Structures are given as structure tokens and as C-alpha cells.
Amino acid sequence: MKLVAYLIGYLLRAFSFCVPRSKKIWAFGSFRGAFTDNAKYLFIHVSRACPEVFPVWISYKAATVRAVRAAGLRACSLFSLPGLYYALRAGIYFFNAYSSDICYFTAGRALCVNLWHGVGLKKIEFCVDKGALYDRYVRKTLRERFYYPQVYRRPDYFLSSTPFQTVKFAQAFRIPESRCLPLGYPRNDLLLLPEPARRGFIRQYAPPATEELIQKCRSYSRVFLYMPTWRESQRNLFAEHLNLEALHLLMQRKNALLLLKPHANVRLDARLRRMEYSNLLLLEGGLDVYPLLPYTDVLITDYSSVLYDYLLMDNKGVILYLYDYAEYINERDFNYPFLENVAGELAYTFPELLSAIKRDTYDTSRYPLIRSRFWGDYHGDASRTVAQYFLDKIKS
């Protein structure tokens, strides 16, 4: 059935090159059919502030379409006639990873803008030279080309953050550096808004569960967020390197809350789902965590690009829990020396992690350096800047 579906998809792809495109129809989408990340925040801005164009969110998930519509925004199911129409007619595709976030097979001749989903140090895409994705990016086997064609379609434009990042992004996606736009990330605009504006945005565009989580966070003296990166070799693991009982007791003593946020690709075991600790809270992998970030105090992460987003905010602490550092660097290489391009307290063992959590203050001396290196002079308003760039382009 999968083979048949892809053969039909390739026929649709050929047809999509024959359909006339409208520069004023902009299609948006995200990975796994969710309403999240840079595409989400750019789409909201365009829907509110750009009457010159017709923005539409396209998803294969009915729940996502309902949620977007409930926020007063335009959304269509990919499998509906309107959704298929707009996917075929849209002049510009905005997405977070690949055109398949909307639909690769309907994207013929559309201008494809990859907003991506994180700055960072890890080698990605066609800079990968080992590991689980070797067949896709190095060997480029026929099977990979057939089932993952979106990977091989180079974006027309790519959203970067600084020239420092652009060099590697251009290599990874095999495009000229001139097509990498160092304009900042729309998802981070929310982190830098004044509190009244941020709360208004959240009330209008976030689900009620997000508001409930914010209120819960405010009832504790301190909020920690554990948000590790995706590990291909540990897709069934999340908390195996944490002693949940010890963390719960420490949080109780500090009147603190620890939010556990697995990557959306991680398969959570039943033990973790049944966890019953008053001061630990598991967040589902598909939750948009960005509205919550300003209401946390300390980020616990590892090699994840969320580190760099978090450093944009003032008065925050960072702990890097690197329990598998030696193993990870053998599995996934970096573009730059890791320890020279991160900031935060380092913890290589669980006892070291507990010790770092017990502290009330953290060394923030490297924050400005890392912030400047990865974000330059970005101080918010990326959504407006990106939207204006493409508004100017369709007018020219």
C-alpha cells in the first residue's frame, strides 16, 4: 500500500508542475501535521498583519485543522478539496523541515522556503557523514530517494540566524549562502515580547492547556525544564538516565517543579506515563513548549538547539546534562567544537546534575558571547521581517 501511495504521489507531483501558481497564496505547514515552530508563528503574523496575501495552514491531521480554526485562522485538511486546491495553487510554501510538511507531491514550481527548526552545532543533512542517516545523505540509495524525495529537493530560501550559521546551513542544504536569510526565528519573537503582549498572544493562539500549565508554573518558587535532543539510537529512551524519585524529593525541598519534555519522536514507555510525582510533570512530545519557556527558570538540556533560544531571555539558568558525551560525539559529529560554543553548568553524571540543580545561582558570563555568535543583533520581530522580505519579492 505504501508503494502504491507513493506511485500515485509521483503522478500528482507531475501534475502539480502544470497548475498555475498564485504569488498571493501562501501555504504553511509543519512536521507530523502539527501546528508548531517557526511556520506557526510566521503564519499567525501573516494572517494578522498581511492582508495582501491569502495564508492557509495545511495539515493531514484533522485535530490540527480544528485547533487552527478555533484560533480564528484559516486551515484546511490536505485530504479535502480546498486543501488540495490551495496546496496546488500556492505560490510559496513555508515549512519547518521539508516541503512534505505541507505536501511534497503538490509542490511543483512553488517557491519553497525552509524556516528550519533550530540553530546549533550538530552536522545536519548533507553534512552528515556517519550514523543512522548515512544511507540517505551519503550513499543516497535508491530506496531513500524514492521514499524521502523531499530531502533531495533543495529549498529556494533558507532561514538562518547569523553569517556564522549560514556557512554550515548552505553546505548542509547545498544552496548558495545568498539564499540563506539571517533574519532570526519567528518562534523566538514570543520570548522577547513584553509580558502583556505575550499573555495576550497566548490567550488568543495557545490551547487552554497551555494557560493551565503557565498558572501551575507560577504556583512554584522555581521551574526547571528538562528538554534533551533527539537521539536516533535512543528513540525508546527518555528518562533512563534520571532518578525520578531523587529529582522529586529535591523539587519538593525547593518548592520547585520539574517539567519533562521529550522529543516528539521519542516513544515513551508505560512506566513514565504512569509516573505519579507531585513535583514532576511530563509534557507530551507534540506540545508547543515555546509559550512556556518564559515561565521557567532553568533549562536542563544537552546538545539541543533549544539552548540558544533560551539564552535570548534574561535571568535564566542553564544546565547541560551530558551523560553520554563520549558516545554521542562518536554517533553525531559537530560543525564546531562543542564545549567552545555552549554556555551553562556542565553535568556529566546524575550526582553532578543534582548538585547543579541545588544551586540558586548560575554562571551567566558566557551568555552574551554565545548569544551574539548565534543570534547577532536579533532582538525579536523576525516574523515581520521575514514576511516583509517575501512581500517585497512578490511585488518585484
Q: What's the CATH class of the largest domain, please?
A: Alpha Beta
Largest sheet: 7 strands, parallel
Tally of helical runs? 18
Describe the strand arrangement of the main beta sheet, using strand numbers: 3-2-1-4-5-6-7
For the record, what is the CATH homologous superfamily label of the largest domain?
A: CDP-glycerol glycerophosphotransferase, N-terminal domain
| Rg from Cα | 21 Å
Shape: globular
Helix share, percent: 25-40%
CATH topology of the largest domain: Rossmann fold
CATH architecture of the largest domain: 3-Layer(aba) Sandwich
Low-confidence stretches: none
Would you count the extended β strands for me?
13
Q: In angstroms, what separates the terminal alpha carbons?
A: 45 Å
